[in-house]
Design goal:
It is a single chain. By secondary structure, this protein is α/β, with parallel strands linked by helices. Helix content is 43%, strand content 14%. It has a seven-stranded parallel β-sheet, with helices on both faces. Helix 4 packs parallel to helix 5 and helix 5 packs parallel to helix 6. The radius of gyration is 18 Å and the shape is globular. The termini are far apart.
Length: 265
């Protein structure tokens, strides 16, 4: 009797799938867009920085992928509708949404103004609600299921003394993930979140440098991470593909920590 082995690549193959990535000009959004394209999906990159957006779309297409750009952030219902329409026009529908847009303004309760708090909550919670709501509606109308991956943070579970707005917003993002998952699961749509710790980006590059405040500040952060280092963009790739692929079809409502063990200690 012959025994056939599972074709593991099929579990992660996104060929023929259509994806939308918000915040695609950010560090994690750009990684997600390239990863999805590399796995075979066509990808619409949404972002506010047009020049950078155009460069990323060109780079993916030049490398053999299929990418489109829409110079918008999901901050209004009109912009969200325009994103969805662009995906439908260019790609014929939507199978995968990765929400990588967001904002942080550090400050404690005495430093952060109500306007600061509202700004962070709007970017991280309200805008996530808007795009997931619209994407979920389209996926349900299509009737073929779908994948929604929301970018959260370890700060949704672990507080800091200067993150009154950001930590609160990410805790709310985690609950949005769970609520959307409960609502969409009967329609075959999974909703999960990725919660990274400090990753290399334009905003955090100073932490990775061996000059100035970098070494001392990095030491303080790394002491909390059992793996013993900060995150690199490549560390994000496998998790994004897993939650966007058939490999995670029976997983929904989860917060997956991509953090080197940060939340375990």
């Amino acid at each position: 009797m012959s025994t056939s082995l599972p074709k593991i690549k099929d579990y992660f193959d996104l060929s023929g799938k259509s994806a939308l990535v918000t915040g695609a000009t950010g560090a994690l959004g750009s990684v997600a867009a390239k990863a999805l394209a590399g796995a075979g999906a066509s990808v619409t990159l949404a972002g506010a920085k047009k020049e950078q957006l155009d460069e990323q779309v060109k780079a993916i297409n030049s490398a053999g992928g299929k990418a489109y750009g829409v110079n918008l952030r999901p901050n209004t219902e009109e912009n969200v509708a325009a994103m969805i329409q662009a995906v439908q026009k260019n790609q014929g529908g939507l199978d995968i949404l990765v929400v990588a847009s967001g904002f942080n303004k550090p400050g404690n309760s005495q430093e952060a103004t109500p306007a600061d708090f509202d700004l962070v909550m709007d970017a991280n919670v309200r805008q996530t609600f808007l795009i997931c709501r619209a994407a979920g509606k389209l996926m349900m109308e299509q009737g073929r299921g779908g994948k929604i991956v929301i970018t959260s943070s370890v700060r949704g579970q672990v507080a800091t003394n200067n993150g009154i707005a950001y930590c609160t917003s990410k805790a709310a993002t985690d609950m949005l993930t769970k609520c959307f998952s409960a609502e969409f699961a009967p329609k075959g749509i999974t909703v999960n979140a990725l919660a990274p710790t400090v990753f290399r980006s334009n905003l955090t590059s100073w932490l990775f440098e061996d000059t100035g405040r970098g070494p001392e500040a990095r030491k303080g952060v790394v002491q909390r991470i059992p793996i013993g280092r900060l995150g690199e963009p490549a560390d994000f790739v496998g998790s994004v593909i897993y939650l966007s692929s058939p490999a995670s079809d029976f997983m929904t409502g989860h917060i997956m920590y991509v953090d080197g063990g940060f939340v375990t200690v």
